[in-house]
Each structure stands twice: as C-alpha cells, then as structure tokens.
Amino acid sequence: MGTKTTCRRLIKAPASQMLVVACIFMLLVESSAGSKARHFKWDVEYVFWSPDCIENVVMGINGQFPGPTIRAKAGDTVVIDLTNKLHTEGVVIHWHGIRQFGSPWADGTASISQCVINPGETFTYRFKVDKAGTYFYHGHYGMQRSAGLYGSLVVDVEDGRKEPFHYDGEFNLLLSDWWHESVHHQEVGLSSNPLRWIGEPQTLLINGRGQYNCSLAARYSNSSSSQCQLRGSEHCAPEILHVLPNKIYRLRIASTTALASLNLAIGNHKMVVVEADGNYVTPFAVDDLDIYSGESYSVLITTNQDPSNNYWLSAGVRGREPKTPQGLSVLNYRPNSASKLPASSPPTTPAWNDYAHSKSFSNKILALMGSPKPPKNYDRRITLLNTQNKINGYTKWAINNVSLTLPPTPYLGSIKYGLRHAFQQNSPPESFSNDYDVMKQPVNPNTTTGNGVYILAMNTTVDIILQNANALTANVSEIHPWHLHGHDFWVLGYGEGKFDPKKDEKKLNLKNPPLRNTAVIFPYGWTALRFVADNPGAWAFHCHIEPHLHMGMGVVFAEGIQHLTKIPQEAIACGLTGKMLMTANHN
C-alpha cells in the first residue's frame, strides 16, 4: 500500500493529529524527492503463442509475450509480486543492468542471490532503479530466457533533469531469437553425450514478433522464400515504427538473445549512438551497429529521407554462420500506409565473420565527457581463460579449466551465515598457465567442475582480463559477451592473441573508457575490464549466451556480505541456509 493511499484513509478516518501531520510530512518528502514506488503483480506461466506465426508454447507473464514493459524514473522503487504458476519448475527473474545497491537478494540469480521461487509461491522483488537508461529483464534459472521469459525495463531521468540530447519521440526495440524446439529439448541436448546441438534459431524476433519460412521482403529476393501471409498475425505481424518527417527519434535497443549476435540497420538512415548499457557515450554516427546478447543502446535517427516512402529496419546474425533469416520491421513515414512496403530492399547485414567491422564499432564507444573515470591503478587482477572442454565425454565450457556448477544453497546466505560446507572454500584460479597456446586446440581437453567464489575486498579496484582461445574444433574461436551483475565496469580495451602485460597494458584507455555491464571478447582476442567492488552481495559474471552459461561458462564474485544486515529469509531459506533458519526459528 502506498503512502498516499494510507494517508487518505487516515485523514478520512478518526486519527490523531500527530498521525495526520506525520502523513502530510511523508507526502511532502515523497513529493519533493519526486520518487515513487511502482507496484506490479505478475503471474509467470506457459501460454500458447505464435511469435513467428507458428503456434508454440512460450513462457509469458500475465498471459502476454514478451512480458510487460516496466517504466520508471531514476530514484523510483520498483516492487514486483511474482507468482510462479509454472506447475512443474521453479523460476527467478534477473533485472539486467540494475545494480541492486542495498538489495542484492533482488538480483534474481538462482543459487547465487536467492532461492528458486517454487510452483505456487510468490516472491516480492523490491529494488531501487538508481540510474536512467535502457534495460531489460529475463529469466535466470535453467534456460528460461530461451523459453521467452523476458521483457523491457526503461528508466527515465528523474524529474527536473534532462537527457544530454534532444528527441521528439522514442521507440523501444527488444531483440531476441526463437526456436521451435522446446527449451527442454535444448537442455537435454546440451547435457547429452555426445552433445546434441539443436542448431541455429528458426527466427529473429523484434519485440517478440517475427515471421518463419517466409519473407516480408520476398519481392526483392532471388531466394525461394514466399511473401509472408502472416498466419496468426495478431502475434507475429511486424513491429511498425510510426514516424513524422523531419523529427528526431530515440530508439532504445536491447538484446536478450539466447545465442545470436546481431547487426541492426535502418535503410537510408544513419544512427547516432548516445547510450550504452545505461551510460551516456560520446555521440557518433553509424550506418549499422553490432549488438551482442546482454547489451543495450540508445540511438537517435532523423527522419529526413523521402517522406513518400517507408523504410526497412533489419536485424541480422553476426559472429556465427547465419542460418536464420533477418528480422524485419518497418519505419513508417506518416501519412503513408503502414502496409506500404519500402521501395528498396532491406539493409544487407555485414558478413558474419567480418570482425574488423565489429571491432571498429566497439572501439568507437567512448564515455561522454564528465562521466566517471576509472581508478588509475588496480588492486587485483584476475585473468579468465575461456575454453571449451570435456568431462567424461560431455562437452562443457570452462573458465581457467573450471566449469561452474551452482550449489543448492544461495551464496548470499551461505557466506552471510558462514556455512562452509555449502560450496568449495578454495578460491578459483586467478589465471592460467603461461605456456597455454590460445591459438590452438587444448592439448588436454579435460576439465573439472567447481563452485568456488572469488572473494573481493570491499572498495578495491579489480581488473578482469577476458582471454579467448581456440575451441575443441581446430580454427574455431567463438564470440562471448560477458555480463557482470551488481556493477558497471570500464572497458579499457581489446586486443589480439594472448594478453601480454608488458606490451598491452600501455595500450589500455584510462582517459575515457565507456562504462558498461556487458562486454564482448572477440575470437582469439582479449578484453580488459576494471571495476570497483563497492556493492555488498554475491554477483554472477558470465557469458550471456544461454547454452554457454548452462554448460559452465561463468564465475561468482562476492564482496562485503558481512555488512548486510537484514536479508529477507524467503530469499535464502533453501538448502543448508533453509535448514539453519528453520532450526533457529524452532529454537
């Protein structure tokens, strides 16, 4: 119940003068602060849907897919009462990009920050959105993001402040990929010996909408694709962006793909990048942009093209040989009919393996003047080698030769209460052998599982070197976008081959590196990050490609948990923590 509702009841009912005065004071404080509590009631359940015109089962919220868009202002408190109506599986939701200062139990990471919400249970997520930006949310248990559990989260600037750029209107674009095989087929295939890979996604979705086995742009193509008839078009009709000529529009773009790296372009329109992962960047213009799973951007477009035409917006696959057609949307210049197809073909996606194009874009992203600068020196450096390995014939991904398997007891509770048997107490490796050749297949492909934690000292500066390597197959090194929970980090630079401190450290950008929460490592390369461990909690750091995380590609950081006072019991009352709390309550 909100302050206003409570006070209205008190003022109308017999109440002491002191209570009325207190209520008026609270209302004044709330009004002056300008922040609000925004309440939502959500039921998570499977529903029949036709995301790409083929009916399937998706994981929806309140009977819709994608889930409802959350819109708030910086400083607001978001409260979501989430009820699990899945019947046979647990659920959690991660609020991607929200740093959760003071509420680490609301981060929504199963076995790390909270217990799984069991069927029939309701869990209340309550957290403050402290920074304006483009974010999203998604399931973080098993592979529920692949099942469609995601939606947009937009945080506007607080009252009295303005963005450092002007625009006349805005659109929100949530990009995802979609398979016709169920998420359970995917999981079982990834856990099989030998691995059974279900292949590339059938469809790319824009705001949950796509078209399978047909093309909106078939008339421009030499392929055998037929023109879309949009069967079940209520769900799969293309997203239409209605614009007026000679205006500036902000496009908020976020990628919640489970696998695909994407390239986005708009026919005949340049895009000016102004925001990345909730942080302002020095504006720069591009014809197209690469966006990896877990990233978000804001771009500005000016509708200064021939107003008698409409224009294609296209999203195509990058970093993997594309076997999935482009996802398409239409920029509709009013008063043209939205059904009027553009006069020219959709923008061509750059070659999937044109990494020079990708790196050129990434290197253009620099912090806006006045943004926080990184500390000049680091206190601790952790180098994380990304490798594909085997365990008893099963294919895994590993970090420094350890494939992550999460324990049944959330780290937040086990560390807080000193439950030393809840997870491995030895710290994971800080680096890898100097003689490891990242350009070749591993000499010994075998790895091991582990669930140890990197314990970080509070308020220390931590450098992470993400090091890519050859996979199990010769001449294969994959793209990996890494996402850090609970923090933003500075992206200090990218490089080729193995990171060499003596020659590469002087190349790092300490002047104006961008703040991000997700960063990519390119094939056979490295990426250098820096962050300050200033947020008490247990935090996941992992590859945001869903199958890779499922196969062990992640680590866990913990810092300052002893400083947390009141952790809600319902967040951690499972596993060994649950037994301890039950015993304590019984006594």
UniProtKB/TrEMBL annotation:
<comment type="similarity">
    <text>Belongs to the multicopper oxidase family.</text>
</comment>
<feature type="domain" description="Plastocyanin-like">
    <location>
        <begin position="440"/>
        <end position="560"/>
    </location>
</feature>
<dbReference type="InterPro" id="IPR034259">
    <property type="entry name" value="CuRO_1_AAO"/>
</dbReference>
<dbReference type="Pfam" id="PF07731">
    <property type="entry name" value="Cu-oxidase_2"/>
</dbReference>
<dbReference type="InterPro" id="IPR033138">
    <property type="entry name" value="Cu_oxidase_CS"/>
</dbReference>
<dbReference type="InterPro" id="IPR008972">
    <property type="entry name" value="Cupredoxin"/>
</dbReference>
<comment type="subunit">
    <text>Dimer.</text>
</comment>
<dbReference type="Pfam" id="PF07732">
    <property type="entry name" value="Cu-oxidase_3"/>
</dbReference>
<dbReference type="GO" id="GO:0009615">
    <property type="term" value="P:response to virus"/>
</dbReference>
<keyword id="KW-0677">Repeat</keyword>
<dbReference type="GO" id="GO:0009506">
    <property type="term" value="C:plasmodesma"/>
</dbReference>
<keyword id="KW-1015">Disulfide bond</keyword>
<protein>
    <recommendedName>
        <fullName>L-ascorbate oxidase</fullName>
        <ecNumber>1.10.3.3</ecNumber>
    </recommendedName>
</protein>
<dbReference type="InterPro" id="IPR045087">
    <property type="entry name" value="Cu-oxidase_fam"/>
</dbReference>
<comment type="function">
    <text>May be involved in a redox system involving ascorbic acid.</text>
</comment>
<dbReference type="GO" id="GO:0042542">
    <property type="term" value="P:response to hydrogen peroxide"/>
</dbReference>
<dbReference type="InterPro" id="IPR017760">
    <property type="entry name" value="L-ascorbate_oxidase_pln"/>
</dbReference>
<dbReference type="InterPro" id="IPR011707">
    <property type="entry name" value="Cu-oxidase-like_N"/>
</dbReference>
<keyword id="KW-0964">Secreted</keyword>
<keyword id="KW-0325">Glycoprotein</keyword>
<dbReference type="InterPro" id="IPR034267">
    <property type="entry name" value="CuRO_3_AAO"/>
</dbReference>
<dbReference type="GO" id="GO:0008447">
    <property type="term" value="F:L-ascorbate oxidase activity"/>
</dbReference>
<dbReference type="GO" id="GO:0005507">
    <property type="term" value="F:copper ion binding"/>
</dbReference>
<keyword id="KW-0560">Oxidoreductase</keyword>
<keyword id="KW-0479">Metal-binding</keyword>
<dbReference type="Pfam" id="PF00394">
    <property type="entry name" value="Cu-oxidase"/>
</dbReference>
<dbReference type="GO" id="GO:0050687">
    <property type="term" value="P:negative regulation of defense response to virus"/>
</dbReference>
<feature type="domain" description="Plastocyanin-like">
    <location>
        <begin position="171"/>
        <end position="335"/>
    </location>
</feature>
<feature type="domain" description="Plastocyanin-like">
    <location>
        <begin position="44"/>
        <end position="157"/>
    </location>
</feature>
<keyword id="KW-0186">Copper</keyword>
<dbReference type="InterPro" id="IPR001117">
    <property type="entry name" value="Cu-oxidase_2nd"/>
</dbReference>
<dbReference type="GO" id="GO:0005576">
    <property type="term" value="C:extracellular region"/>
</dbReference>
<dbReference type="InterPro" id="IPR011706">
    <property type="entry name" value="Cu-oxidase_C"/>
</dbReference>
<dbReference type="InterPro" id="IPR002355">
    <property type="entry name" value="Cu_oxidase_Cu_BS"/>
</dbReference>
